[in-house]
Amino acid sequence: TAPVTANDPMEALPVGGYCPGFTDLSAPDLVMSLDAAQPMLSIYARAQDDLVLAVRAPDGSWSCNDDASELNPAVGIANAQPGDYLVFVGAYSPGSNGLYNLYASVGSPNWQA
User: Fold this and answer.
1) What number is the average pLDDT over the span 32-57?
2) Domain that holds residue 37
3) What residues have CB less than 8 Å from 12, skipping those under 6 apart?
């Protein structure tokens, strides 16, 4: 569980498409290291607030999601390669300050966890 910091516009991230919401751009909320390739890697978050999630893969590509399951975001990365994944969690509205839980799994998100 961690607090949402929603100060900077997520559109400033080089996602390559529309990425709504606000986060702290000074550093990722999580750096997740994957030791071996996986057929599917899911990174997802749950909270009472409307969240947005952006992930930078080791190859430099970006993924962004808002509202995969109700107001909760999820990013699925097929054929996930080893390396560091930079995870930014933000809120759809500026100034949001609730708490969120961040999850990662091999396969599809387990929204019941």
Assistant:
1) 93
2) 2-106
3) 25
